[in-house]
Design a protein that fits this description.
The structure holds two protein chains of two kinds. By secondary structure, chain A is mainly beta. In chain A, 0% of the residues lie in helices and 49% in strands. Chain B starts with a strand and ends with a strand. Classes of the chains: A mainly beta, B mainly beta. At the A-B interface, strand 4, strand 5 and strand 9 of A face strand 5 and strand 10 of B.
């Protein structure tokens, strides 16, 4: 089992550009959550996708959008990049809600985005 | 609203010494509490969690934490530090029962272990 895989691992973009980050959930997981971890900070919840729809959203502007595909993989899109968007973006996948309640979300290794 | 405060952004201990990382939470409902570890250039790995029941929870790598409702605390301890414990540690709280509910993280504590 490969766990949660994210791509790319590192990315450098210029202010104003757009970026797409990708996440493949752990086998058997159907829910994907995205977090932003700025340098020296804890992760902050961006949004969550389940059944190809955004189910929960944190306090992030509309420049941040996402998508979930039928195979449960997900994309995070950020438009009009700002210097402040530089961060580690973490994807976490969760098993179905009717699954074992003691199974927690599983995090990927993240994509480090640098905006210059 | 829920929140987490981690006291001390950096903690340094000698190898073999006690590790104590502090976490206090704020929650209007019974919280679900977590400790995660992050090694350099890695994602987050779950160390342990408190949901209900026994207030002293044991996790991986010899870590444990005690939920103290009266103190709104969930401090992480390990009796004897090892060099491999050097990492960033995050305390988190979750409002909901479901493992899909969002996590609210503290700002983290970097643990350094000296030989």
């Amino acid at each position: 089992d490969a766990g949660v895989t994210q791509s790319p691992t590192h990315l450098i973009k210029t202010r104003g550009q757009q970026v797409t980050l990708r996440c493949s959930p752990k086998s058997g997981h159907d829910t994907v959550s995205w977090y932003q971890q700025a340098l020296g900070q804890g992760p902050q919840f961006i949004f969550q996708y389940y059944e190809e729809e955004e189910r929960q959203r944190g306090n992030f502007p509309d420049r941040f959008s996402g998508h979930q595909f039928p195979n449960y993989s997900s994309e995070l899109n950020v438009n009009a990049l700002l210097l402040g968007d530089s961060a580690l973006y973490l994807c976490a996948s969760s098993p179905p809600r009717w699954g074992p309640m003691n199974t927690e979300a599983f995090f990927g290794q993240g994509t480090r985005l640098t905006v210059v | 609203a829920q929140s987490v405060t981690q006291l001390g952004s950096h903690v340094s201990v000698s190898e073999g010494a006690l590790v104590l990382l502090r976490c206090n939470y704020s929650s209007s409902v019974p919280p679900y509490l977590f400790w995660y570890v992050q090694y350099p250039n890695q994602g987050l790995q779950l160390l342990l969690k408190y949901t209900t029941g026994a207030t002293l929870v044991k996790g991986i790598n010899g870590f444990e934490a005690e939920f103290k409702k009266s103190e709104t605390s969930f401090h992480l301890t390990k009796p004897s530090a090892h060099m491999s414990d050097a990492a960033e540690y995050f305390c988190a709280v979750r409002r909901g029962v479901y493992n899909t509910d969002k996590l609210i993280f503290g700002t983290g504590t970097r643990l350094q272990v000296f030989p």
